């Protein structure tokens, strides 16, 4: 879909969500969510299981039908801005038995920029190689994706998103099920991507590391309870309300002694 130049705000936020409601059957997964996310942040989406975190990401991408509300990406209606956003799904959503090499998975990130009538160019492969290097998977470029460990597979899908060249990256639980070394490697990639000016929105389940990993947090349980710095969001009263007493809250989560 062609983007009309008149749709472009010269200095818009990365993502603006207004009055967004998404339902699965009679129950809303997201309820009247309004939020503006500035450019260049590394933001974690936190909340209890079933709070709507993944639905939040999918609603931004247009993967789920909205009951009401709107989403804009860099000032452009989300439905016109697909090329501006890259997505890294949960590992469980991917068929890892499909016979494809690492470099071919990463090249999928370039497909939106390649017309159907032309093959991948040298420049496309250079971007793929750069993305694989960034996630420390260059040595595996000719390996079958199914032969890799879970953490390596996650990093390859991050390379695919980086190769797309999008300004905004949305990641759904990238740290789930990986070892400590891979978790550190993924975090390094996120921090490098942020330094290039990208905006990153990451679904995350571990409150103990949220303050360390992210410079902004989005606290969700159907609606957005808070958005801001970890110190502002990781407040005992807020967490008690959202997690309904099921979470033992430590003062140090909010950076307090």
Automatic annotation (TrEMBL):
Question: Which SMART domains did the record assign?
Answer: AAA
List, in alphabetical order, the Gene Ontology terms for molecular function in this entry: ATP binding; ATP hydrolysis activity
For this protein, the record's CDD domains field holds: ABC_Metallic_Cations
Question: Mind telling me which InterPro entries this protein's record contains?
Answer: AAA+_ATPase, ABC_transporter-like_ATP-bd, ABC_transporter-like_CS, Metal_Ion_Import_ABC, P-loop_NTPase
Task: Please provide the record's keywords in A-Z order.
Answer: ATP-binding, Nucleotide-binding, Transport
| Domain ABC transporter, residue spans | 15-247
* Family under the similarity heading: Belongs to the ABC transporter superfamily.
Q: What's the protein name?
A: ABC transporter, ATP-binding protein
Q: What is the lineage of its organism?
A: Bacteria, Pseudomonadati, Thermodesulfobacteriota, Desulfobacteria, Desulfobacterales
